[in-house]
Amino acid sequence: MICPCSGLPAGTDFDNCCRPALDGETWPTTAEALMRSRYTAFVRGNADHLFRTWHAKTRPDDVGIDDETTWLGLEILSTAGGGIDDSTGTVHFRAKFRDRLGAHILDENSAFVRRAGRWMYLEALEN
Protein backbone atom coordinates (compact mmCIF):
# COMPACT_ATOMS: atom_id res chain seq x y z
CA MET A 1 0.00 0.00 0.00
CA ILE A 2 1.44 3.38 -1.04
CA CYS A 3 1.71 5.75 1.90
CA PRO A 4 -1.26 8.16 2.23
CA CYS A 5 1.19 11.07 1.74
CA SER A 6 1.99 9.63 -1.75
CA GLY A 7 5.35 8.42 -0.46
CA LEU A 8 8.75 10.00 -0.06
CA PRO A 9 10.19 9.27 -2.55
CA ALA A 10 7.00 9.06 -4.60
CA GLY A 11 5.32 5.68 -4.44
CA THR A 12 6.99 4.50 -1.22
CA ASP A 13 4.82 2.15 0.80
CA PHE A 14 3.44 3.14 4.22
CA ASP A 15 5.78 0.81 6.18
CA ASN A 16 8.85 2.46 4.65
CA CYS A 17 7.52 6.01 4.65
CA CYS A 18 5.36 7.48 7.45
CA ARG A 19 4.58 4.43 9.61
CA PRO A 20 7.86 4.54 11.60
CA ALA A 21 7.24 8.22 12.46
CA LEU A 22 3.60 7.64 13.40
CA ASP A 23 4.65 4.71 15.60
CA GLY A 24 7.35 6.84 17.30
CA GLU A 25 10.20 4.67 16.00
CA THR A 26 11.83 7.51 14.06
CA TRP A 27 11.54 11.27 13.71
CA PRO A 28 11.26 12.89 10.25
CA THR A 29 14.57 14.44 9.20
CA THR A 30 13.14 17.27 7.08
CA ALA A 31 10.23 19.68 7.33
CA GLU A 32 8.64 18.09 4.25
CA ALA A 33 8.90 14.60 5.74
CA LEU A 34 7.29 15.89 8.95
CA MET A 35 4.52 17.58 6.94
CA ARG A 36 3.87 14.32 5.09
CA SER A 37 3.77 12.34 8.34
CA ARG A 38 1.31 14.82 9.83
CA TYR A 39 -0.96 14.51 6.79
CA THR A 40 -0.80 10.73 7.15
CA ALA A 41 -1.66 11.10 10.84
CA PHE A 42 -4.84 12.95 9.84
CA VAL A 43 -5.67 10.22 7.32
CA ARG A 44 -5.11 7.43 9.85
CA GLY A 45 -6.60 9.23 12.87
CA ASN A 46 -3.34 9.36 14.83
CA ALA A 47 -3.83 12.32 17.20
CA ASP A 48 -0.77 11.31 19.28
CA HIS A 49 1.57 11.98 16.35
CA LEU A 50 -0.09 15.33 15.66
CA PHE A 51 0.28 16.31 19.33
CA ARG A 52 3.95 15.36 19.66
CA THR A 53 4.94 17.05 16.37
CA TRP A 54 3.12 20.34 17.08
CA HIS A 55 5.29 23.01 18.72
CA ALA A 56 4.17 23.54 22.33
CA LYS A 57 4.08 27.31 21.76
CA THR A 58 1.26 27.05 19.19
CA ARG A 59 -0.33 23.66 19.87
CA PRO A 60 -4.00 23.73 20.88
CA ASP A 61 -5.11 21.83 23.96
CA ASP A 62 -7.08 19.43 21.78
CA VAL A 63 -5.61 18.34 18.45
CA GLY A 64 -8.62 16.09 17.94
CA ILE A 65 -9.36 14.52 14.62
CA ASP A 66 -12.74 14.95 12.97
CA ASP A 67 -14.09 11.47 12.26
CA GLU A 68 -16.39 12.93 9.60
CA THR A 69 -13.45 14.15 7.48
CA THR A 70 -12.00 11.91 4.79
CA TRP A 71 -8.62 12.96 3.44
CA LEU A 72 -8.32 12.31 -0.28
CA GLY A 73 -4.84 13.36 -1.37
CA LEU A 74 -1.77 15.48 -0.73
CA GLU A 75 0.23 17.58 -3.17
CA ILE A 76 3.45 19.32 -2.11
CA LEU A 77 3.70 22.55 -4.11
CA SER A 78 7.01 23.91 -2.79
CA THR A 79 9.44 23.88 0.10
CA ALA A 80 11.89 26.47 1.41
CA GLY A 81 14.57 25.51 3.90
CA GLY A 82 13.55 22.65 6.12
CA GLY A 83 16.52 20.48 5.22
CA ILE A 84 18.65 18.31 7.42
CA ASP A 85 20.98 21.22 8.31
CA ASP A 86 18.32 23.98 8.53
CA SER A 87 16.64 25.39 11.62
CA THR A 88 13.47 26.65 9.90
CA GLY A 89 11.48 25.71 6.86
CA THR A 90 8.19 26.10 5.06
CA VAL A 91 6.10 23.64 3.09
CA HIS A 92 3.36 24.82 0.75
CA PHE A 93 0.83 22.05 0.13
CA ARG A 94 -2.69 21.27 -1.01
CA ALA A 95 -4.72 18.57 0.69
CA LYS A 96 -8.04 17.40 -0.68
CA PHE A 97 -10.70 16.28 1.77
CA ARG A 98 -14.39 15.65 2.11
CA ASP A 99 -16.59 16.32 5.12
CA ARG A 100 -20.33 16.51 5.75
CA LEU A 101 -20.46 19.79 3.80
CA GLY A 102 -18.81 18.41 0.67
CA ALA A 103 -15.42 18.39 -1.03
CA HIS A 104 -12.73 20.94 -0.15
CA ILE A 105 -9.09 21.80 -0.75
CA LEU A 106 -6.85 23.00 2.06
CA ASP A 107 -4.12 25.21 0.56
CA GLU A 108 -1.59 26.02 3.26
CA ASN A 109 1.94 27.29 3.64
CA SER A 110 3.14 25.73 6.90
CA ALA A 111 6.04 26.96 9.03
CA PHE A 112 8.32 24.45 10.74
CA VAL A 113 11.13 24.92 13.25
CA ARG A 114 13.74 22.60 14.63
CA ARG A 115 13.45 22.20 18.40
CA ALA A 116 15.93 20.08 20.36
CA GLY A 117 17.11 18.69 17.02
CA ARG A 118 13.61 17.66 15.88
CA TRP A 119 11.34 19.25 13.30
CA MET A 120 8.09 20.63 14.73
CA TYR A 121 5.04 22.14 13.05
CA LEU A 122 4.77 25.77 14.17
CA GLU A 123 1.88 27.40 12.31
CA ALA A 124 0.06 28.07 9.08
CA LEU A 125 1.30 31.16 7.26
CA GLU A 126 -0.82 33.39 5.07
CA ASN A 127 -0.55 32.48 1.39
TrEMBL record:
The lineage's top-level taxon is Bacteria
| Domain YchJ-like middle NTF2-like per the UniProt entry, residue ranges | 30-123
Entry-linked InterPro entries: NTF2-like_dom_sf, YchJ-like_M
Q: What is this protein called?
A: Zinc chelation protein SecC
Per the UniProt record, the source organism is Brevibacterium linens
